[in-house]
């Protein structure tokens, strides 16, 4: 009997289920969006029940599309938007509050208080992360402090915390009827609560954040032969945060290998092997993956909050076009940005600055500027931010990048990919399967059940689709990049007082 691997990819804007064969080819895909909820400026929420409903719909839809049933799946892997935080009642399965999304900035005051004496790098040695609104720990603390009854429920053992992988796995494996309350090392490493060395919840961090340990899921390997639980008798045994999943999908298994994913945000990861590399340049030290009993693999990460989300903003808020892919047509209608730069610091600046008081700006406007220049500037913003992260990564690691492996939704934008190669001055390489996030989750699950034997099996699946070579003159490259750096300074320290 031919068997397949399923991958549930629970993303920031949509949820999808993909089915892969042994060669890593896509057999079926079903994808549905969910609402983005903005209760007030800087706040971003999702409805966890809506996401659970979408999860069930996309799984059924992909299986129907492939003409197969659950028994044809050898295993299921899960990948997810990281840091997004949900707390729910384990008896009823109902959330106490909406999921607080990774982009949300409401925890700024909590982070400032924790950073007051020793600065935002106070916990970096232990957890690899700066104190910023991005991570889950402060979001849990906010829910405990602000949602009536939750702290009591947590202390009584009834409230459970999870990132979105934990939420969907718990529901898939039984929910209130004994669902598995688990996460993997990659997602746990984004909470500020896991010790990078022990790969366990850190008692000191829990005490400082005021978070009861009873709320927290069990931390398991990203690929686990012991399996987390079952859905319709199919083992669920792979779990990776989306950026780490893309790293696995791109087969970046050797130290020094790098991938960049262009999605809602933009995230570059470098495999650093079994070495924990502290960043001196504004990057994150994080878990890359852990396969079964093998030692954990670490990574350096450059996180950019807004990439594809800027295109969505032009589409939904400013009504520049009806479909996101139309941005390329408008951007191509002009030969350059006309001096216009957009710094999309909608939720502050992430790597390498970590400034929560920054806000988005459009600079360089003249009477000559038009919609096409703004569209072009929006695409270029992603490429400039990537260069800043890459320079920080080269500084921290001492490794000079020879080529950049890329994936995610935006890599089908040819104008952006060429500009990315030009501004980095290195070739940009797109693989045959650009949806490497779901593929990485499938690989993790497949390795756990022996569907694939080893990493060489996975490497054999990776195929190049297209390469963009840099063609821009050096003087032009540097002039454009200096303009970007100047624009970034205009976005900084925009908020003069703490948000309420």
Major sheet details = 7 strands, mixed
Separation, N- and C-terminal Cα atoms = 59 Å
How do the strands line up in the largest sheet?
Answer: 17-18-16-15-21-22-23
Strand content: 15-25%
Shape descriptor reads: globular
**How many strands?**
23
Give the helix level as a range of percent: 25-40%
How many whole angstroms does the radius of gyration measure? 22 Å
Secondary-structure content class = alpha+beta
Total helices: the number is 16
- Average of per-residue pLDDT values: 94
**Would you identify the regions where 5 or more consecutive residues have pLDDT less than 50?**
none
Textual characterization of the structure:
- The protein is of the alpha+beta class and 500 residues long.
- The chain has 16 helices and 23 strands.
- It has a 7-stranded mixed β-sheet.
- Helix 13 (414-424) links the parallel strand 21 and strand 22 (428-431).
- The relative contact order is 0.13.
Question: Quick summary of this structure?
Answer:
By secondary structure, this protein is an alpha+beta fold. 33% of the residues lie in helices and 22% in strands. The protein has helices at residues 48-66, 108-115, 124-127, 136-146, 150-155, 164-172, 185-188, 203-209, 242-249, 308-316, 327-332, 371-397, 414-424, 436-448, 455-461, 474-491; strands spanning 4-10, 14-20, 26-33, 45-46, 73-80, 86-89, 99-100, 159-162, 182-184, 194-195, 200-201, 218-220, 229-231, 234-241, 258-262, 266-273, 284-289, 297-304, 341-343, 361-363, 404-407, 428-431, 464-468.
């Amino acid at each position: 009997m031919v068997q397949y691997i399923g991958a549930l990819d629970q993303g920031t804007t949509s949820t999808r289920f993909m089915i892969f064969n042994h060669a890593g080819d896509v057999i079926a895909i079903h994808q549905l969006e969910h609402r983005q909820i903005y209760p007030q400026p800087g706040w971003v929420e999702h409805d966890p029940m809506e996401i659970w409903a979408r999860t069930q719909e996309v799984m059924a839809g992909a299986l129907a599309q492939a003409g197969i049933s659950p028994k044809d799946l050898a295993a299921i892997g899960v990948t997810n938007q990281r840091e997004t935080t949900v707390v729910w009642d384990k008896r009823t399965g109902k959330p106490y509050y909406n999921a607080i999304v990774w982009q949300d900035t409401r925890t700024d005051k909590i982070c400032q208080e924790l950073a007051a004496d020793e600065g935002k790098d106070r916990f970096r040695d232990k957890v690899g992360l700066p104190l910023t609104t991005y991570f889950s720990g402060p979001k849990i603390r906010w829910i405990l402090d602000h949602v009536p009854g939750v702290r009591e429920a947590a202390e009584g053992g009834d409230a459970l915390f999870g990132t979105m992988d934990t939420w969907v796995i718990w529901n898939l494996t039984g929910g209130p009827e004994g669902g598995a309350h688990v996460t993997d090392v990659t997602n746990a490493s984004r909470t500020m609560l896991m010790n990078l060395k022990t790969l366990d919840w850190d008692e000191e961090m829990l005490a400082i954040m005021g978070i009861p340990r009873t709320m927290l899921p069990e931390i398991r390997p990203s690929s686990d032969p012991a399996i987390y639980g079952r859905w319709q008798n199919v083992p669920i045994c792979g779990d990776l945060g989306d950026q780490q999943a893309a790293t696995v999908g791109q087969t970046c298994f050797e130290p020094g290998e790098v991938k960049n994913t262009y999605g809602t945000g933009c995230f570059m990861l470098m495999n650093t092997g079994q070495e924990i590399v502290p960043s001196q340049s504004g990057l994150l030290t994080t878990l890359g993956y852990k396969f079964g009993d093998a030692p954990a693999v670490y990574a350096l990460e450059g996180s950019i909050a807004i990439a594809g989300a800027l295109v969505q903003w032009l589409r939904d808020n400013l009504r520049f076009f009806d479909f996101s892919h139309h941005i390329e047509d408008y951007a191509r209608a002009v030969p350059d940005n006309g001096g216009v730069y957009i710094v999309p610091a909608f939720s502050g600046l992430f790597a390498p600055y970590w400034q929560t008081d920054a806000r988005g700006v459009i600079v360089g406007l003249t009477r000559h500027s038009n919609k096409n220049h703004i569209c072009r500037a929006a695409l270029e913003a992603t490429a400039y931010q990537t260069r800043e992260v890459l320079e920080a990564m080269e500084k921290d690691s001492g490794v000079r990048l020879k080529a950049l492996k890329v994936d995610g939704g935006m890599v089908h934008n040819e104008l952006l990919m060429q500009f990315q190669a030009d501004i980095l001055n290195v070739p940009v390489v797109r693989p045959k399967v650009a949806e490497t996030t779901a593929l990485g989750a499938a690989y993790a699950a497949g390795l756990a059940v022996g569907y694939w034997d080893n990493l060489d099996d996975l490497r054999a699946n990776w195929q190049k689709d297209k390469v963009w070579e840099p063609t821009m003159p050096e003087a032009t490259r540097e002039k454009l990049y200096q303009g970007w750096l100047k624009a970034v300074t205009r976005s900084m320290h925009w908020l003069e007082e703490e948000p309420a």
